[in-house]
Specification:
Helices cover about 40% and strands about 15% of the residues. The chain is of the alpha+beta class. Helix 1 packs parallel to helix 3.
Amino acid sequence: MAPIVHGLERQYGRRIDFLYLNVQDSSTAAAKARLGFQATPHFFLLTPDGQIVREWQGVQEEAILETGLQALIGDTP
């Protein structure tokens, strides 16, 4: 999954902030609890004020994640 996500970050990184929460890092516990993190991988699309727009658990196809990113920024495929 990492190569897919990093590729999407390269493509959309100027328009969307990507944040990575390490499941083993206790300093991210509050963020994981707030988001309802349950599995690895677990993807969240958030509005600028932190509201969850969409989320996916488990391995996802690149096209599914990209469609979500495009919807978030108002692009059409």
